[in-house]
Design a protein that fits this description.
Radius of gyration: 24 Å
Number of domains: 1
Helix content: 25-40%
Oligomer: single chain
CATH class: Alpha Beta
Structural class: alpha+beta
Strand order of the largest sheet: 1-2-9-4-5
Strand content: 25-35%
Number of helices: 4
Order of helices and strands: HHEEHEEEHEEEEE
Number of strands: 10
Length: 151
């Protein structure tokens, strides 16, 4: 049987521990941190890289690229991959091409700048992220077509 003194010591210890400052993440179960780690990689102070397949699910507005006149010789389906920063508000900027035909890079970046995303959430707060976006050019498909894949 516990004495009144030992109960008071336990209570005092519990009160002191509850006032020790610690990050909110320390209070969450480890499994929650592990799940978000699968989708988020810190690449610098406050910058996070999110896999393309995760960000594709958050895209709410897409604009199709225009096949440039200079690339009419290609006339085949082509892919340009761009790296983009997506703000907390879901806006895309800056953008840089990382692979694909140099003739198509500018149009791919112009189209992606018009895309909009739902904010990526970390610890219930929106964060700025970086991701790769695959832009597909199809001959005969008009550019500037707006679609809403996940609205």
């Amino acid at each position: 049987m516990k004495t009144a003194g030992s109960i008071l010591r336990l209570l005092a210890t519990a009160i002191v521990i509850s006032f020790i400052p610690c990050p909110a993440s320390a209070l969450r179960p480890a499994a929650i941190g592990l799940v978000s780690a699968l989708h988020l990689q810190e690449i610098g102070a406050g910058n996070f890289h999110v896999p393309p397949e995760k960000m594709a699910g958050l895209c709410i507005t897409m604009v199709s690229p225009t096949y440039p006149h200079a690339a009419e010789d290609l006339q085949k389906e082509s892919i340009v991959i761009v790296e983009a920063n997506i703000s907390k508000a879901g806006r895309v900027s800056p953008v840089r091409a990382i692979s694909g035909s140099p003739l198509l890079e500018a149009e791919a970046m112009n189209a992606v700048r018009l895309w909009r995303y739902k904010p990526f959430m970390r610890d219930e707060e929106p964060v700025d992220v970086t991701t790769e976006i695959q832009v597909t050019f199809k001959p005969g498909q008009p550019g500037g077509i707006i679609s809403h894949p996940n609205k």
